[in-house]
Amino acid sequence: MMINLTDMKTVRSILGRHGFHFSKKLGQNFLIDPSVCPRIAEEGNAAAGYGVLEIGPGIGTLTQQLALRAEKVTSVELDQRLLPILEETVGEFENLHILHGDILQFDVPQLLEQEFAGLHVAVCANLPYYITTPILMHLLESGANIDSITVMVQKEVAEKLQAPVGTRNSGAITAAVNYYGTVEMLFTVPRDSFLPPPNVDSAVIRIDVQKRYADQTRDPQHFFSMLKHGFSQRRKTLVNALSATMHYEKPVLLEALHAMELPETVRMENLTMEQLVELSNRLSGATAEKV
């Protein structure tokens, strides 16, 4: 019989029996709202024909729902103290493989080939908030064949990720994620859905990986460097920001803006995704210090 991991009394009993204490350093907050994990699994492509990579299974609340639906689930857990708990809570699932380690240290394409050969692949995770961006970019930049990434993040981060590129709420991470796919905020999750409750509300987003701008970008390394440096000086005009950080001569930058029919006072945050790609393509062959 499957253990009810959304019952607080049951969860506290399991954690107490294993002598487990929450780690603030690892950003541990376990989902206890019974409606959330089934919905993440349903909307995160956990289904027949799919292998699901789960990052940070915790005590296994989401893991259960993924394993009930997907062909196979591989869960990567950093905290060794949780391994015996997971053996108790989800050890019954024959289609589940739990790995101990840091996902940032894994070769993602190799891991997926090893675990999910012949299957479509989706990623589902309730990520520690302090490491959301590094994990997302590690997955996307790996070039792994992933259909979708469905993750729980801070509501504020979700709003930034799904903001249209070129609007005030967007940033470098918005453009970086949009380079690889489309972002949709699926639903919000109040803070009292967790044990212990975090200080912020959360939201679940899905990135449908399409790599839609990869073929249009002449030099991806330059594109991401331009994003990093241009958005680091948001209050400056694009010309002043890139001349200061990437050491372009201002006439080179102005020539590119004129060719794109953009005003000389435009800021990086005002450019759409298409304009960012075009600007990078125009500048990537120009002379600038390699940053």
TrEMBL record:
Binding locations of S-adenosyl-L-methionine: N29, L31, G56, E77, D102, N126
| Keywords carried by this UniProt record | Cytoplasm, Methyltransferase, RNA-binding, rRNA processing, S-adenosyl-L-methionine, Transferase
Q: Which reaction does it catalyse?
A: adenosine(1518)/adenosine(1519) in 16S rRNA + 4 S-adenosyl-L-methionine = N(6)-dimethyladenosine(1518)/N(6)-dimethyladenosine(1519) in 16S rRNA + 4 S-adenosyl-L-homocysteine + 4 H(+)
Spans traversing the lipid bilayer: none
The record's listing under CDD domains reads: AdoMet_MTases
Q: Which Pfam families match?
A: RrnaAD
* Gene Ontology MF terms: 16S rRNA (adenine(1518)-N(6)/adenine(1519)-N(6))-dimethyltransferase activity; RNA binding
Q: Tell me where it resides.
A: Cytoplasm
Stated EC number for the protein is 2.1.1.182
The similarity annotation says: Belongs to the class I-like SAM-binding methyltransferase superfamily. rRNA adenine N(6)-methyltransferase family. RsmA subfamily.
According to UniProt, the name of this protein is Ribosomal RNA small subunit methyltransferase A
> Which source organism does the UniProt entry give?
Ruminococcus callidus ATCC 27760
Alphabetized NCBIfam families for the sequence: ksgA (TIGR00755)
Fetch the PANTHER family from UniProt. DIMETHYLADENOSINE TRANSFERASE (PTHR11727), DIMETHYLADENOSINE TRANSFERASE-RELATED (PTHR11727:SF7)
